[in-house]
Amino acid sequence: MPKLVGGLAALLALAGGILAKVEPFTCLGRSALAFILGWLLTQLWYVFFTIRVQPGKANTEEAK
After folding, report:
1. Are 42 and 1 in contact (CB under 8 A)?
2. N or C: which end of the chain has fewer CB within 10 A?
């Protein structure tokens, strides 16, 4: 998922740069930066904001 978000951010930055008629190397630099930031921020989102579900142990005494 982080690669997908980073890739979408890079595509948006690249498309925005092309539509704004920015120099090609500047567009590539901005899209690379957008990819890195999108990837990194998605990783941080997963670390801090996702719930970690841990499977519980079934007690054999309760099942009887």
Report:
1. yes
2. C
Q: Which residues of the chain have pLDDT under 70?
A: 53, 58-64
What pLDDT does residue 50 have?
Answer: 79
| CA gyration radius, the chain | 21
Quote the CA–CA distance of 42 and 46 in Å, as a whole number. 6
Distance CA 45, CA 5 (A): 12
Identify the CA nearest to 2 among candidates 34, 40, 32, 52: 40
**Domain ranges (residues) in the chain:** 2-48
Tell me how far CA of residue 62 lies from CA of 16, 57, 58, 59, in angstroms.
Answer: 60, 11, 8, 6
